[in-house]
Amino acid sequence: MFVAISLLLVIAFAMAWSAMPPQHSVAGAAAEPFRQAGRQLSDWYRIHIRQGLAEKTPDYEAASRRFLDADPQRGAELIVQYGCGACHDIPGIRAAQGTVGPDLHDFAQQSYVAGVLPNRPGDLTRWLLNPPAHSPATAMPDLGLKQDEARDIAAYLLGSEVRR
Amino acid sequence: MSGTSQSALGEFGVQSALAPEGAGATAINGLTIGMTIAFGVIFVLLVLFAWAVLAGRLAPRRWWIWAGGIALPLVSVLALVVVSTGILQKITREEPDALVIEVTGKQFWWDVLYDPEGWALRDANEIVIPKGRPVTFRLKSDNVIHSFWVPKLTGKMDMIPGRVNTLPVLATETGRFRGQCAEFCGLSHPKMAFEVVVLEPAEFDAWMQRNSGEARDAARSELLRGRDVFVEAGCPACHTIRGVADGGTLGPDLTRVGGRGSLGAGMWRMNQGTLAGWIADPSAMKPGAEMPSYNHLPGPDLRALSAYLASLK
Ligand SMILES: [Cu+2]
Asked: Which one of B223, B285, B309 makes the best mutation probe of the A interface by having the most chain A beta carbons within 10 Å?
């Protein structure tokens, strides 16, 4: 009896699953709350515990959030949208493995942006808004970013050290 | 099972046979669901039956062998053959007045020729079709076997060297639908996709009108510089930009490259940045792409060239 019922359940599940629109995968739906909670927990840890404990490992993401009032998560989405990965290897961005420009892992530890501007949130934002204006012979084009977009991307890149 | 691909493109045409937007895909989806339900029911009945026998509630009979072993499979398989043959007939029937679009599979991109006997408008990597008007794809290959598959529109069809396969399509909804090469064809086979853009018929006619002429003129001095770099760097050996350089056929037609939704056959979002990255190092973005790297171009030239290509809409 038990076998029959569990078989029935499996069949019903398989049929319902195959009829479902693809965006609503069961596994995806079930995993989402856990993923959310995990993200919040790790954010909380980074901001409240790690930063408080060790001066040596400043939390760039929290810092950039504070300095810039920026949203690094949106920055990550913009990096995907603008296809920066065509030229840069960027931590945490799938398919961003370009070799045309510098690798942006540990970018936050660098002193200069493209060797011409001090690596601070404001200057990085300025670089992203118009690279050729700061370095006339550069290969990196002006991608037409808006001020708030550049700021969010800058926040993500400066947080890349903690994201490894 | 996640339908929205988290590729470099972010939100990009969806590719799912379970959410059809074309006559063929709708029929195939109906068949799939019908079959799953019918055979699910048969399976459940069989399990219940076996359980009844094993639990001693039914005494076995000899005629069961005839009924369950011969009659039932015969009837169900026959029904399956009839229904699926009918659907196959329906979705492969060609309309005599359909718009013909010739698509040739390349490594690893798609050459597109609209109305070969009439307009003969050449494009690549993106196919624009009208909604509600029958279209016949004429599918070819001049290298290895590829397979042309737009799951939301209809079933797949192979592209075989030396043969011409036809695939009728009737789109029932406007939108952008992703397609994919479905037959292993080499190193970057997984990076050989494309988009089908379905427009209202009137919009489609306007689109054909607008795109059948020469490429858009370079309006600013940077764009003019970009056009010169295109010619000087030798790109016309492989690429055509109508009105600027004709004859190159080894690579995709670039006459309206900036107007396509994606770069590199459905792989990257089209913009100046990705274009510049592509020109400087195609094989980093697509291993095995048959285009040389132009990382020797000076920065300003690379920027001008990519700005020019992005302006070709
Ligand atoms: Cu392929």
From this structure: B285
